Amino acid sequence: MKRSYYLFSNGELKRRDNSLIIKNDKTSKYIPVEDVNQIYVFGEISFNSKLTNFLFQNNITVHFFNYYGYYSGSFYPRESLLSGDVHLKQAVSHLNFQKRLLIAKEFIDSASFNISRNLKYYNRKEVNLETQIKDIELLRNKLNKVNSIEELMGIEGNIRKIYYSTWNFFINQNINFHKREKHPPKNWINSLISFINSLIYTTTLTEIYHTHLDPTISFLHSPSERRFSLSLDISEIFKPIIGDRLIFSLLNKNMITHESFIEEFNHIILKDSSKKIILKEFDERLKQTIKHKKLNKKVSYRKLIRLECYKLEKHIIEEKKYEGFKIWW
Amino acid sequence: MHIYYFNICKRKLWLFSHNLNFEDENIDVKIGKVIEEESYSSQKKNYMIDNINIDYIKKNKTIHEIKKSNSFEEANIMQIKYYLYILKEYGLDDIKGILEYPKLYIRKEVHLDKNDDIIIEKQIDEIYKIINDKKIPNVIDNKICKKCAYYEYCYV
């Protein structure tokens, strides 16, 4: 199976014959191109057009992160899987308000189901989360009646507020985490969430690239956000299952602590060594497999994201109603 | 390709003709491509005539189609027969088809038989009907699906 490569060192990424090579003063290392699905660039890398053409031929996406560890953008090769049919129908599904709302609801319904599933896991004798779980269920019941995307986002916001408020209870470090803040995150947990969410976002983008969907036409998020907003939509479902669970495990095993960060001006950023720990664990998680009920075979978490795109495609071409992924184990 | 898919799975035909392709990562498809490229490398390859792509042609009036395996032999044969049918439309009616399985060391002669014209024309009609249908054909629920590049899309 193809995999992700994470480049931290500075140097030059080049095409050498039919392979990739990363070179700097000290070392040079070959990367077999057949093995690469996506590349994350954290260091300072220079490259030329010969390389980009080569990456394009091999359908490889490259994600760039800036000095602070924030996602800054992706090299996204020309779409190789184009279907006019799917493209048009995806646009129609966005423009037709009822169609759009139906899909957007499904994203939030699944995401919030997966959130409440996480809480149920931590709801034990010593940590009682019954009230919060109940409150989330009440909010989830309102989803069926919403009539606008704003309302939907409002409910989602409230669910997240409750969700984040519980983290202090079951994380066995003093995280002092009260609310989600971005741009820039002032609390180290916020910084951690931002980093891991960007990994989910970019992985989802790579998976979308291997389908016929247009990553800029979204349903929950507004496409005018000048991002690959469909990737944001689909990420919602997988953030609790892949991202948040990763965060809980990193913190509860003390693999990431307050010491894993450096404070700079008004930024709290992850040390490179911490990023490497996170990426290794993240990669492991994407490779983990579960037995898929419908396909009757083992699929990886990464594949689950791809399958989500397929289900959306099937909905868009009006073959089968989309049902967002809800964790079943 | 349409004739070939028609004889394997009508749903695959529909998806393929709507540019819904899932083959770019399938290992069997990749292997098939390499076999086609690497075998008989001294031959000039890939002749486009009309909408057909003949793998290679020999002077003794044979057209050759290279396949990885004979698990879809019926469909393989129909594909060559369709090529022979098209060539016949151009007035070339003493052409022989050869089905090649380089990895199995098997080759097989294919001729356009008496009733084949009618069968092919009927299949072409049906192909148009399927392609133009707004509705996608159902999954066929066959054991061949497990190895198909479209499996995950069809069964999820």
UniProtKB/TrEMBL annotation, chain A:
InterPro entries: CRISPR-assoc_Cas1 (IPR002729), CRISPR-assoc_Cas1_C (IPR042206), CRISPR-assoc_Cas1_HMARI/TNEAP (IPR019858), CRISPR-assoc_Cas1_N (IPR042211). The keyword Metal-binding applies. HAMAP family: Cas1 (MF_01470). Its EC number is 3.1.-.-. The keyword ATP-binding does not apply. Mn(2+) binds at residues 156, 221, 236. Its cofactor is Mg(2+); Mn(2+). Belongs to the CRISPR-associated endonuclease Cas1 family. GO terms for biological process: defense response to virus; maintenance of CRISPR repeat elements. The gene is cas1. Keywords: Antiviral defense, DNA-binding, Endonuclease, Hydrolase, Magnesium, Manganese, Metal-binding, Nuclease. It comes from the Bacteria. GO terms for molecular function: DNA binding; DNA endonuclease activity; hydrolase activity; metal ion binding. It comes from Oceanotoga teriensis. It is an enzyme of class 3 (hydrolase). Pfam families: Cas_Cas1. CRISPR (clustered regularly interspaced short palindromic repeat), is an adaptive immune system that provides protection against mobile genetic elements (viruses, transposable elements and conjugative plasmids). CRISPR clusters contain spacers, sequences complementary to antecedent mobile elements, and target invading nucleic acids. CRISPR clusters are transcribed and processed into CRISPR RNA (crRNA). Acts as a dsDNA endonuclease. Involved in the integration of spacer DNA into the CRISPR cassette. Homodimer, forms a heterotetramer with a Cas2 homodimer. This is CRISPR-associated endonuclease Cas1.
From TrEMBL, chain B:
InterPro entries: Dna2/Cas4_DUF83, PDDEXK-like_dom_sf. GO terms for molecular function: exonuclease activity. Gene3D superfamilies: 3.90.320.10. Residues 2-155 form the DUF83 domain. Keywords: Exonuclease, Hydrolase, Nuclease. The keyword Cytoplasm does not apply. This is CRISPR-associated exonuclease Cas4. The lineage of its organism: Bacteria, Thermotogati, Thermotogota, Thermotogae, Petrotogales.
